[in-house]
Fold this sequence. Notes:
The complex is a heterodimer.
Chain A: H1 3-9, H2 23-34, E1 45-50, H3 53-61, E2 72-79, H4 80-83, H5 90-111, E3 115-119, H6 124-130, E4 137-146, H7 160-163
Antiparallel strand pairs in A: 1-2, 2-4, 3-4
Chain B: H1 10-24, H2 31-52, H3 56-71, H4 76-96
Helix pairs in contact in B: 1-2, 2-3, 3-4
Amino acid sequence: MDLMNIIKGRRSVRSFLDKEVSREHLITILEAGIWAPSGSNIQPWEFILIDDATLIKKIKLLSPGLYGFPKALVILCVNKKKSEKAGRQGESLAVMDISMAAQNMMLMAYSLGLGSCPIASFNKLGLKHLLNISEEVDPVLMISLGYPSEWPSPPARRPLEEVVHLNGYGKHPGR
Amino acid sequence: MATENILEDENFQLLAFLLASARGCLDEPPIYGSLRLIDAAEKTINIIIRKFGEIQELSEIRKKIEKARSLVLADEEEFSKTLDEIMIDISKMIQKA
């Protein structure tokens, strides 16, 4: 599949089929994540894969932003011991790094026919407790994964002409 | 009820949802407060219907909640209008009771 088609085709999926996702697919998605760029190549992330149905049910109770019944979750965490190596910028850089890894994972998921949704609305304290996540590791994002029961229509995008500034702020390119 | 079975209880699920939302709303965009409340309303309708059987008016409200959810981030004005419609529906139910 053409990369632009994958980028444009990915949607935030919030309703999933009751169909298992192979462990092989999940590992491929995680592998796409670790190949994301990171500031100073620190790779300040830890990814927790959840494919146990009971555990997903428990996590759902702590996650108001988690819709539907996905077959797997990836919890993307910042390892603060690693991110602090980037100095005062470490914390914000780590969030950027995690975001790039998340996008890699979601695009890979889409290319495998899987729906995904990035979720920040979950109780971090509760999740840390539930998953025994150590003190220096902070969950910052969750990705739900599963075969979609429907692909939502794409929401409108701000046009390029409005978003892009050419050779200085406020000068928009024509098309 | 044994606590190991509590995960399946819809009341408990609603409770956990409300508490997680209460904390989350402190940090999230204000409109998410409305979103969480309509999600909680939908869960409550499910509990009521499970207990009392099908109630046409509540099923209709549930459909409108689904519509409202699709609007919340896309069109706040339509979201607000849909919530107004839902309020008229629930007021009619209250009046009739």
